[in-house]
Amino acid sequence: MPSVKLKAPAKINLTLDVVGKREDGYHYMEMVMQAVDLYNLVTVELTDTQGIAITCSNPEVPCDERNVCHKAARHFFAATGIQPQEGLAIDIRKTIPMEAGLAGGSTDAAATLVALNELYRTNLTREQLCEIGVKAGADVPFCIVGGTAVSEGIGDLLTNLPPMPPCWIVIAKPYESMKTPECFARYDNTVIENRPDIDSMAVAIIAQDLHGIAQHLCNVFEQVTAFESVSEMKRVMQEYGCLGAAMTGSGTAVFGLFANKRLARRCMNKLMGSCKSVFIARPINHGVKITEITE
């Protein structure tokens, strides 16, 4: 049966701010986001059996209707009016940590939409896929587009920026986790003292000023989660020569920007054993990518 294999990249938040709240409880966001070369591998295949079957290398990931890929597929069929006569098998090989603020679930959903667009030959534009994707999750549109971008609204308004200058990014996931709804609930009861300067961040990116980018890293959720492990990982990264460090998304992963690969590797080696997982990544200029199509 026809299948599509894809690489689904993680993202980091160079800045993250909450700028309002809708009556339905959703929050308006303003973020500068960056795709990185840390990937999940997703395979979507048409099958002879009815329904959507999901498998995943991580046993902690739900493989039923709660899975964001399942949601994305349902929204795709609803938007296109397709009533599939065949079934769907979605296999996810996880590398991106869960509950880390790295869009590990959202990028899987983005991959599912890109694959379905290919398998059903619907020829939807990237913008149309993003309109479907935001119904499955706020980060899904960015994961489709990738690169470097300002994300506004509920994730549905994207403005592309020039590619981030080359650097090495150490990403560390502590043992603690926090679910996104809990993070927003805490935010609603917290006075935020420091907010990001998104305009200055955009200027630094346009100028290809890595030091300027590092100086303007800011995530309001750091003031909400207040995990000691987040502060400690930032301290270690700074001790080992990072230009700047911040938590990404609703956490709890922390990243540090390095101009020097050797320093980044030394930092990664130092963090090993004191956190759940640690990686070195590079910024990339794309989102979900098809790697193989089988007819």
From TrEMBL:
InterPro entries: GHMP_kinase_C_dom, GHMP_kinase_C_sf, GHMP_kinase_N_dom, IspE, Ribosomal_Su5_D2-typ_SF, Ribsml_uS5_D2-typ_fold_subgr. Residues 204-271 form the GHMP kinase C-terminal domain. ATP binds at residues 97-107. Keywords: ATP-binding, Isoprene biosynthesis, Kinase, Nucleotide-binding, Transferase. HAMAP family: IspE. NCBIfam families: ispE (TIGR00154). Catalyzes the phosphorylation of the position 2 hydroxy group of 4-diphosphocytidyl-2C-methyl-D-erythritol. This is 4-diphosphocytidyl-2-C-methyl-D-erythritol kinase. The lineage of its organism: Bacteria, Bacillati, Bacillota, Clostridia, Eubacteriales.
